[in-house]
Amino acid sequence: MIRSKKSVTSMAVVASLSLTIIMPTARLQAQAAAPAQLGALAPANLAKPRPAAPFNLTGTWLHDLRKDANKGADTWRFVPPTFKLTPQAQIHYDASQKAAKEGKVYRDDIGQCWPAGLPLIMTRVWPIAMVQLPTVVYMISHFMNSLRIIYLDGRSHTDPDVLVPSFNGESIGRWEGDTLVV
Fold first, then answer.
1. Residue 144 pLDDT exceeds 50
2. How far is the first Cα of the chain from the last one, in angstroms, to the nearest whole number?
3. CB–CB of 12/106 below 8 Å?
4. For the segment 43-56, what is each residue's pLDDT rounded down to a tens digit?
5. Whole-angstrom distance, CA of residue 49 vs CA of residue 166
6. pTM over 0.85
7. In sequence order, what are the residues at sequence separation of 6 or more whose Cβ sits closer than 8 angstroms to the Cβ of residue 41?
8. Residue ranges per domain, the chain?
9. Residue 92 CB partners (closer than 8 Å, separation 6+)
């Protein structure tokens, strides 16, 4: 009886080790067999037929913080529309507003030398340069030269085991009417 328990245990260990070797190998083989995602600027990707964007975002954009920015026709700045915050983001926004009224600082990431990240680079005084192509929008913040890439070519998000995280995240977008949904 002792001998058969050892045999069963040995076989279980061998089976477990075999699976830990075989499963990752099978996954890698499946990934190798799958067609690779074309780069956003690959000629074959750019040549694919797709609906035209309703407008072109290419240019330099600046968030106008003046209270009367949208009232007069003499404003020369592009003004992005205000956006609705998620409930979690609203909590942080409210806390930051309360801290500001009290003369305190709330999560000063830039003051601690962290990259601004999103949505901060889009909502402050620094201009943003955008280059729009059919497959991608490149956003370059003039503050710390932070880059955000919004892929428009229908790709899915990168496997989390392969993704290299960034402060601006991995942005996948699509047009819904005249709205760019990211």
1. yes
2. 63
3. no
4. 998 999 988 899 89
5. 30
6. no
7. 133, 135, 136
8. 1-34, 37-181
9. 106, 107
Residue 111 carries which DSSP code?
G
Would you place residue 68 in the very low, low, confident or very high pLDDT band (cuts 50, 70, 90)? low
What's the rounded Cα separation, in Å, for the pair 167 and 177?
28
Estimate to the nearest angstrom the gap between the alpha carbon of 81 and the chain centroid.
20
User: How many CA atoms within 13 Å lie on the side-chain side of 127?
Assistant: 8
d(CA 110, CA 117): 9
The pLDDT tens digits for 97-126 are 899 899 998 887 777 788 877 777 777 778
Other residues' Cβ atoms within 10 Å of the Cβ of residue 123: 14
Q: Looking at residue 106, what is its pLDDT?
A: 85
Q: Which residues contact 134 (CB under 8 A, 6 or more apart)?
A: 46, 50, 52, 53, 152, 153
Single-letter code of the amino acid located at 41: L
Q: Which helix (H) or strand (E) covers residue 102, if one does?
A: none
Judged against a pLDDT cut of 70, whether residue 16 lies above it is answered with: no
pLDDT band (50, 70, 90) for residue 10: low
Q: Closest Cα partner for 79 from 60, 61, 67?
A: 61
